[in-house]
Every structure is written in C-alpha cells, then in structure tokens.
Amino acid sequence: YGTAEINKSGHLEIGGKDTIELVEKYGTPLYVYDVALIRKRARAFKQTFEKLGIKAQVAYASKAFSTIAMLQLIKEEGLSLDVVSGGELFTALKADFPVEKIHFHGNNKSEDELVMALEHRVGCIVVDNFHELHMLHHLCQERQQVVNILIRVTPGIEAHTHDYILTGQEDSKFGFDLQNGQAETALQLAVESKFLNVLGLHCHIGSQIFETTGFILAAKKILEKMAEWQTSLGFTPKVLNLGGGFGIRYTDEDTPLDPAHYVEEMIQEVRKATTRLSLPMPEIWIEPGRSLVADAGTTLYSIGSSKEVPNIRKYVAVDGGMTDNLRPALYDAKYEAILANRANEEPKDLVSIAGKCCESGDMLIWDLSLPDVGTNDILAVFCTGAYGYSMANNYNRIPRPPVVFVENGHDQLVVQRETYEDLLRLDLPFTEKTQHTS
Ligand code: LLP
Hints:
Blueprint: E1 5-6, E2 12-14, E3 17-18, H1 19-26, E4 30-34, H2 35-52, E5 56-61, H3 68-76, E6 80-83, H4 86-94, E7 102-104, H5 111-119, E8 124-127, H6 130-143, E9 147-154, E10 157-159, E11 164-166, E12 176-177, H7 182-192, E13 196-202, H8 213-232, E14 239-241, H9 259-276, E15 283-286, H10 290-293, E16 297-309, E17 313-318, H11 327-331, E18 337-339, E19 349-354, E20 363-370, E21 378-382, E22 403-407, E23 410-415, H12 420-423, H13 432-437
Parallel strand pairs: 4-22, 5-6, 5-15, 6-7, 7-8, 8-9, 9-12, 9-13, 13-14, 14-15, 17-19
Antiparallel strand pairs: 1-2, 2-3, 4-16, 10-11, 16-17, 16-21, 18-21, 19-20, 22-23
Helix pairs in contact: 2-9, 5-6, 8-9
This protein binds ligand LLP.
C-alpha cells in the first residue's frame, strides 16, 4: 500500500516513518495518513483529464475524510471540493478553501445552510429537489444574488459492487428522475429563474464501483435527454458531473480499475455520444472521495485481551473498533491487516479481530492470518482512510483517535486525540430547580 514498507527492525513503515515510533509518540488507536499517496491519487485524476485535453473539475468528496489539514492538502493539489452540510462547508472555510471551487450537495439542505452557501458565494449548489429549487430561487431573489447551480438527476441506473442493473424508475431519495419528466421540469424552472445560473447536470450512481459500464450508461442516458431538451427547452448545459464512486482494493476480493482508466473510458464514450447527438462536448466534473484517500489511511491498534473458543476460533481484541471504523459493522466491509511490530514474521494463527465495544457485531476482521499474536502487539489495519474517521463515533463514550499525517519521514499531528473532558463538553448537569418542578 502506497509508501508502506517493512524496515530493518521488521516494523511497518509508512511515508518513511516507523509506525512503532508513531505509536510510542501518539499512542493507539491512531489513524496514519500517507500524504504522498493522497497527492499521487489527486494528480493521477487531474493529469488524465489534462492529457485528454478535457475541461474538467475534480472535486474531492470531503465526506470521505474532512479535517482542516486534509482540505488544506486538497487545496494545495488544486482540486475542487464537494461538501454536503453546513459542517463540511464550515471546515472548508476554516481551511481557507477557495470558495469558488466548493460544490454544495445534499438532499435536504436547510435554509440556514443555503444562506451560508450564498453568503460565502460557493462555486455552485447542486440542487436535488423541487423544495430546494423553490427555496433557493426565493433566497436569491431576496438577496438579489445569482448563484451557479447543477441539477442532480437520477438516471435510472443502480450500480452495485460488481454488477449493475437497469431500473426503469430508480427508487432513490436523491435527485430529479430523468425518465418521468421531473428532471426536465426542474431544468425548465431553473432556466426561467433569473437568479439561478444553470451550469449543468449531475449524477452519482453509487460507491465502490469496479466497472465503467454504469458510469457510461448514466452519461449516455443524460446526454440523450440533453439532446431532447436542446429542442424542447432551447438550452444545453455546459457541465456534466458524473459523481464519484470509483472502487478501491480493500482485499484481494476487490478488483478496481486504475483511476485513469475510469476517466479515459468515460471521456471516450461521452465524446462518441456527443458527436452522435450533435451536442457540444461538455465540461466533465467528477467527485471522488474513497479513491483519493482510502488506501492512504492505516489504523494502528494495540492488542489487548484474547479468548479461545476451543475448536471454533480465537478472538483477539484491539483498543478500538466500531467507534473508529464503523464499516465492518455497518456494511460487512472486509479489511486486511498485519502486525506492525513484527511485519516480517510468517503468519501462524488464524484469529478474529474484535473491537472493544459492548456489542457482538463489533468485529473488525474475521479469520485473519497473523504471527502468534499477543498482548501489546500492534495491529495495522489497511485502507481505513475513507469513511473511517469521518464516520467515527463515541459509542460507549470512547474518545475518537488522533490523526497523524506522514510524508518523507516526517510526522505531523493534524487531529488531536479526544479526551474524556471533550466527551463531556456539551453535557449540562441536572439542576435542582428542574428536579423541584418535575
Ligand atoms: N458524490 C456524491 C453525490 C456522493 O453521494 C458520494 C458518496 C460521492 C460523490 C463520493 O463517493 P466515493 O468516491 O467516496 O465512493 N459511507 C459509505 C460510502 C457512502 C458514500 C456516499 N456518497 C462507505 O463507507 O462505504
């Protein structure tokens, strides 16, 4: 994975930094990010578009991992940014992210969130539904402000991990349906509003997708509609945003394509379709989250207790679990791991890695081969960079781990470890007065 190596002491090294030294300095659990790998992934997407001579924007879907330092890094790499809430927008503003490169998503943006986006003049708002369309028009009218928008459409394609099925009418909470006239009505209303400047259309067909078929089908369906609307509405959007969802390899079961490959095939097909339909080539925007950060992140845990269930299995428990990585419990997600302190030793034991939460479902990895593992060994779980920290929680009042960035042999703390005091920061005591009146 990335710049991960085994050093002379037999320790796992990431970004030129010995992970055992990181554990000594910061403790466990600990999220470690390989900055060089994030840069490499970001550049690969950008360079593919440049090579193809396509006008494009690559927006990082910050829901995958949003912290001030991460957004500063994305800014440094010249990407745009996708935010989906006031909180993510606030983080972007604190990171001094260029507002004109921020795209604001969400299927139920509140009035306050829209006002915040308008006040800070974000680059565009991705309008999801009629309620939002009306609210945004009225807010802009009140403020006498014009805002750039994309219209989010559901193209009627369900993408799954390894396959896809066509659904006539997509059953989704997101976007305007492309098939039943909703999308056309929305586009017409938006084009008629003098406060909404329609840049283009957006779709997102799913996440952790391994094929280009779904993306291509979605693009074709949208372009065909665009050709119809060119006649019916006399309007052709300039931007086609094909969303994120490019898959990555968590274990050998996963067979993703190279990011450049997704982009190249998509562009080729869009080119063909636009020629066939006599449409101008649109600007292509994408918004990868997972594929930019997942394999750059590794979580380090200390091994604590273990339990042998004779003839069945051995449970080995770590000092974290579903509080720092919800994905196994929520999606049955699979991960690979090794012992970071004995990275060059041959696997001997078949063990199952348990978290520390009071919940039987808090299992990080079932049936993992490790050297004869014991208390105080350090477990490194790979590919936890996306939707790990961002979905971390305080179940069982467990504090969230810190985040460290490593690059060229240097480490930098970018999120501090949560303290017990932090956990209680919002709690207020039950007062005497309340007791008397109740
Ligand atoms: N754009 C839109 C509109 C999205 O809804 C998403 C993800 C993305 C982009 C980025 O997708 P990515 O490239 O990261 O696949 N928590 C789940 C993933 C939820 C994805 C939601 N939307 C997980 O841990 O697998």
